[in-house]
Amino acid sequence: MKDQPRRRRSGSRSAKKAARQRPQIQESAFIERRIPYYELLDEAGLALIETNADLVLEEIGIDFRDDPEALTLLREAGADVQGERVRFPKGMCREVIQASAPAEFTQYARNPQRNVVIGGRRTVLVPAYGSPFIHNLDEGRRYATIEDFRNFVKLTYMSPGLHHSGGTVCEPVDLPVNKRHFDMIYSHIKYSDKPFMGSVTHPERAQDTVDMAKIVFGEEFVEQNTVITSLINANSPLTYDATMLGAAKIYARNNQATVISPFILAGAMSPVTVTGTVTQILAEALAGMAFIQIVRPGAPVVFGTFSSSMSMQSGAPTFGTPEPSLVLYIAAALARRLGVPFRSGGGLCAAKIPDAQAAYESANTLQAAALAGVNFMLHTTGWLEGGLAIGYEKFITDMDQANMIAVLLQGVDISDNGQALDAIREVGPGKHYLGATHTQANFETAFYRSITADNNSFEQWQEDGSLDTAQRANRIWKKMLWDYTPPALDTALDEALLSYIAKRKLQFPDKNY
Prior knowledge:
It is a single chain. This protein is of the alpha/beta class. Helices cover 45% and strands 14% of the residues. The chain contains 19 helices and 20 strands. The protein has helices spanning 13-21, 43-60, 68-77, 92-100, 146-157, 180-191, 203-217, 219-224, 242-253, 274-295, 322-338, 356-372, 392-410, 416-419, 421-427, 437-442, 458-463, 469-483, 491-505, and strands spanning 31-32, 62-64, 80-82, 85-87, 104-107, 116-119, 122-125, 133-136, 140-143, 196-197, 228-234, 239-240, 257-265, 301-304, 306-310, 317-318, 342-343, 376-377, 383-384, 389-391. The strands form five sheets. Strands 10, 11, 13, 14, 15, 16 and 17 form a seven-stranded mixed beta sheet that branches. The chain has a four-stranded mixed beta sheet with strand order 3-4-2-12. A four-stranded mixed beta sheet has the order 9-8-20-19. Helix 10 (274-295) links the parallel strand 13 (257-265) and strand 14 (301-304). Helix 4 packs across helix 10. The longest helix is centred in the middle third of the chain and has 22 residues, at 274-295.
């Protein structure tokens, strides 16, 4: 959808009534958790997994492929390096991580009011990442373009329940593979002022991300603070490849954050059991996080997981099933014991369209992540088709869930207003609370009001067009893009970014790899 002039807003009574009926969503830079964590395993169970992960690291080891420098660094730090196989003495990885990795860190945004704190009792919600396709009701499924990328950046910017602009919200396949990162990073900076993620598909692209951030924030500020978070996936099982290692070194050496995430479909890339899968996740994450601390002690790092199951009949990935939730609960507890932030969760589903399957599979994962204590929730909104597509309507329904997560994690109000004793005294037995003073004072913010659900009568629903959830979401995302107004960006910074991009693009030919 192209940028269009904004409609003049009406000051009519109907407009004011509509404004009152809209959900009152409190926007914040991140969520402060006020409810307990859901703890699945006891001390003995968690200790068993930690012991088994140490055995994997010591006896089997991790392959660090095609990166001689990484092998040298690990050998000098005390690891046993034989060829590309690296084995770690018992407890080494944990000791390295706990000696220097921060328990939490601030990622700075170009709008200081949107700085996020990652770690501790905070939750940061982030849109989907990496889809080559988009889906909407008007066009169905097609390859994503840079216009789609900009649209999702804008939608994220306008979503109060999302705290982070994300990274590769979709792959703009209309641009060369080796140059599209410039346009993606620029879009995050231009069309949003929330924090963003950097490119990891090549070390040079990671360096371009850092250099563009230095233009925006200043070189000295970037050297001393974290302004970029990046996603570094292990190539499970038990492997890190040169691409991920190269990007990780760039970000670590520039004091920028890395989310070290084993990428696992249990049954194919890990054992079929929950305990075996978590053991492998912990071993891979420990090795990756320790490597980051060896490259630069104190560089921010996040213990990440992406773990789902698969159909043992067809081999297809499955989402929203119980086993990945069990993995998530255990991994979150292990991250807390290690003393580092945790990434997992999201609105994951295998559905091809925003239907009932998409809703229940996504809700299962989102709620488990909220209860487990995820600090950085990637893929919160938009995920379809096992991540192959990002959906416009799915983005909106997931955004509704994200808003609800914030309410859930705020916990229970036990203030005088929350206790509501004055209301109980005023109403007494046998009456109703609709006209009570307390109700009148709180009605605009009492109870979460969904932006996508229809709670009217059947007759009113018919009169409004008999729309289903996806059709209502279709109207919402279009209106959001119509109403979009970009955040201010200093003209000199914008020109400097565009000049840098133009100069860099001229330095090498277009390639689609």
